[in-house]
Amino acid sequence: MMRLPWFRYVAPRTIEEAAKVLAGEGPGAMLIAGGTDLVPNMKRRQQTPQVLVALSRVEGMKSVANGSGLALGGGVTLFEVIAAPQVRANYRGLWQAASQVATAQIRNMATLGGNLCLDTRCLYYNQNHEWRKAIDFCMKRDGTTCWVATASKRCVAQSATDCAPALLALGAGVRLESAAGARDLPLADLYRNDGIDYLTRRPDEILTRISLPDATGWRSTYWKLRRRGSFDFPVLGVAAAARLAPDGTIEEARVALGAVSSMPFLTRAGEFLAGKKLTDEVVTEAARIVAGRAKPMDNTDFDVYWRKEVVSEFTRYALQELRGDDMQGVRMRIARRTL
Ligand SMILES: Cc1cc2nc3c(=O)[nH]c(=O)nc-3n(C[C@H](O)[C@H](O)[C@H](O)COP(=O)(O)OP(=O)(O)OC[C@H]3O[C@@H](n4cnc5c(N)ncnc54)[C@H](O)[C@@H]3O)c2cc1C
Ligand code: SF4
Predict the structure, then answer these.
(1) How much distance in Å is there from the Cα of 260 to the middle of ligand 2?
(2) What is the tens place of the pLDDT at every residue in 144-170?
(3) Could you tell me the distance, in angstroms and rounded to a whole number, from the CA of residue 113 to the centre of ligand 1?
(4) What pTM, to 2 d.p., does this model score?
């Protein structure tokens, strides 16, 4: 049995109180929301905070509010995201992504804020302490070498959040709050392509809100590759969203990738797609553009070259779904093959 290391636990009731505690405790403190990622990491001694600042009692982060678009509190659980009728109706890509995170039990605990701040993953890192010690620790924790790319000066662990690519495609923004004030930024600016320092969030900042723009006229979708179809982390996530004119011409589009780098990111396919109709030729060319940006590393248990090939396949599926093709059969086949 893996035991948790000792830590102090603080449970503030407001965002202001949480920000104050976090600022006062310094770098030895970490936020805990659902704990579904942090607790296993602590058991494996990958993360060993001395103080946990819990967000579970902070009511100010649990709302789902309509405005010009939709505002989701950072503490909203993935179950609540999926249950929100506005998400299901207007932000389908987010609904599909959140529905495919982990298991129903985990989604009841897991929060959207925690999902966006999720630690990066790697075959050589997501192992227990003894395993990592036996092969000699790596750069991400306690060591100096990267076992995936031994010449690399930076950790290339993969981003593993499902919701981030979906939210990037939907044009989301986030609010970060600290004792020093609040700042709003596009979600894309939250991430950095570095497996260790993967967020631009300062340690004293709390992700309190996710804002989605008005979705009128938009369609969105999310395609996930994983080892087990029942539940598993993504080894590829393709998210696409588009606003289409009545004649099917794309007025605006975004295509984002997840799990093929240390950060989720927007590709250039959106610019290519604007002003075009989703013909088979356009879909194929967009898929080629997207696949060109994917640089997966050999740090999951899938073949890295195959993973790259699947990027263009999944992009085609995503764009075909956006143009209105019935893709349910393809989704079922993928789920069955990965069961
Ligand atoms: C078996 C299993 C399967 C999983 N499968 C998937 C999967 O398929 N897809 C997927 O995306 N994830 C998966 N996860 C990971 C995890 O369950 C989810 O990503 C979840 O959404 C994390 O949210 P949480 O609230 O539990 O985060 P926590 O574990 O509480 O925190 C995660 C990280 O985010 C930070 N954090 C939390 N909230 C905030 C905030 N508001 N502001 C700033 N920082 C914050 C914490 O300090 C920590 O570093 C899986 C986990 C397990 C155990
Ligand atoms: S990518 Fe390299 S440094 Fe990063 S976790 Fe994996 S082995 Fe460690």
Answers:
(1) 14
(2) 999 999 999 999 999 999 999 999 999
(3) 8
(4) 0.97
